[in-house]
Amino acid sequence: MGRYQQNQHTTQTLSKIEALAGLSEDTLIAICEAAHFRNLKPKEILYQQGEEAHAIYVVLSGGVQLIEHTNDGKVVGLKLYSAGDLFGLLSIGGIYRHQSRVEALLPTQMMCLDRESIRHVILQHPDFALRIIDLLIEHVHMAHSRVREMATEQVEQRLARALLKYGQKFGKRMNGHILINISISQQDLANFVGATNESVNRILKQWDQEGLVALSRLRIEILDWATLVNIAENK
C-alpha cells in the first residue's frame, strides 16, 4: 500500500473516532503523519505514575484503565478509556508528570502523538486547536464530576455508576443483557469506586439475588440496566 493510500485508509479510520470526527481531511492526514502506533497486550503498561507526560493518545481498539497509587498505599481506579477515546491532553501545555499509570485491559492499539508534533498540528490546523479546547473542557468537567461523586454519593450509587461505565465501554449485548466483556474482579471495582472489597462484595451479592446482575468468575453481566441507572441517580 502506497503512502497516500495508507494515509487515506488511516484517515477514514480516524474520522469515525468520536474525538476526531468532523475534522477536515487535511487535518486528519497531518495527525496521521505526526503519529506513531503502539500495540499493548492485556496488563501491559503504557506509562507509569510519575513519568514525564510527553504525548497524547487515541485508543483505536481495545481499552485501558488509569490507576493511581496514593501516598497512603491505596490503589484508586480513575478512568476507563475504550476505542475512540483520547487522553493525555496535559502533555500539550508543558512539563507535567503523570499522576497515574495506564494499563491495558484488552489487546489494545494506540495512536500516539508527541508534544512537539501535536503542537505543530495545532498551529497549522485551527479546527484541531478548537477540538483540543473542547476536549480539555470536557475532561475538566469529568474530573469535577468524579470528585463530586466520590465526596457525596453512597457506595451503592458509585458502584452502580461504575458498572454502567464498564458496560458502556466494554459491554457486549447477549440475550437482551449486557456482559462486561473484560476480566474484572471485585477488588478492581472497589478500587474504582473508592470502597472496601467487603462493601462491594456485599452489594453485588444483594444485586445478584435481586436479579440486577449475574456474577461469575471475573465476569459480570448486567441484567437490569434501568434499575442500575436509577440507583446511580439516587431515584
Describe the model.
- With 235 residues, the protein is of the alpha+beta class.
- It folds into two domains: 3-150, Jelly Rolls (Sandwich); 153-232, Winged helix-like DNA-binding domain superfamily/Winged helix DNA-binding domain (Arc Repressor Mutant, subunit A, Orthogonal Bundle).
- The chain has eight helices and 14 strands.
- It has helices at residues 3-15, 25-34, 115-124, 126-152, 155-170, 186-193, 197-210, 225-232; strands at residues 36-40, 45-47, 52-53, 55-61, 63-69, 75-82, 86-87, 96-97, 101-104, 108-114, 171-174, 177-180, 213-216, 219-222.
- The strands form four sheets. It has a four-stranded antiparallel sheet. A four-stranded antiparallel sheet has the order 2-9-5-6.
- Helix 3 (115-124) packs across helix 4 (126-152) and helix 5 crosses helix 6.
- The longest helix is centred in the middle third of the chain and has 27 residues, at 126-152.
- The model is unreliable at 1-6 (pLDDT under 50).
List its salient traits:
235 residues; Jelly Rolls; Arc Repressor Mutant, subunit A; 2 domains; 4-stranded antiparallel β-sheet; 8 helices; 14 strands; globular; disordered N terminus
